[in-house]
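hey can u check if this looks right to u? its 340 residues, i copy pasted from the old doc so theres a chance i mangled smth
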Amino acid sequence: MAVNKRRKKADMSILIKAIVFIVVIILAALLMLAISKMASEPNKPNVSDNQSESSGNTSENDNSDSISDTGSLPSNTEFATVTVDNQKVFTGDLILVNDEHPYIFPSDDQSTLVSLYENKSSDYKTGDINVKLQPQAIQAMNSMMSAFKLIYGRTDLTIMNGYRSLQDQQKEYDSIVNDVGEAEASTLVSKAGASDHHTGLAMDFIIVTSTTVSKFSPTGDYSWVVENTFRYGLIQRYKTGKEMITGMENRDAFYRYVGLPHSYVMNTNNYSLDEYIIALKTYRYDSEMLEVEFDGANYKVYYYPADSGSSTVLPIPNDCTSYSISGNNIDGFIITAIYK
């Protein structure tokens, strides 16, 4: 009888030790998982520097969709909701277009494009009267080049290219392939379907005077353009040091409209568009938003993943002055709440 008691006591001791051992293993595994997750998170943008000096201003387009108080999101008095079609993931000022994420041409892909020649200011030129761009890109150029002319008195900066169809981009790519071969061409010009030109938000600069036509170089007076594009919602799309990320060589003359405050955040953190889209995924409406102050306005920016169905209910801060929604051309939406 005493032997049985001792055996039961020993068995109980072994059981307790086994349970403790299992608990320790589980806690250790959870700790390793947390450390791994922290290490894998991308660096978040630095927006602590508030640059109040500005030579111009281009505001985000307000979204015309009405905000309703209905939706499937948890009840929260700080947010209203708006329902968007999931096809909108492939449209907007912040869509990332490259080999991995080709542009999705809508059936009416030229419906929002306008003539650059008919809508530009007299402070710069167009090399082709058939160039088309999105209105917000032209507005940004008009504001920037007005400031440039005021400072330097020059009007010789010229936009040579804007929107390109799939067929036009293929012709451009084939032409470069014939000149330098496909291996080099793929780092100099985007393949058809992978070009920012398809969006109507991208443009190429050249310099045209009364006697000469030359490449745009970010030197001399034109260094101002490179240093100040971010103030107007524009970025240099392919920069030195980002070749391994973008897959493209530096292109001094190629610019893309992304809007404010995104161009400012990208400039402050030396982000390519590719890096910025990844970084934005760490910002959510129900945790931490990216808060930015620039040129007298405040912004809150956050990512929201698209639902699996045909539409997504997006949360919009109730207290914002206006807002814009852009797809990222991958898997979700970027909401920019504007406070002025």
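The two ends are 84 Å apart (CA to CA).
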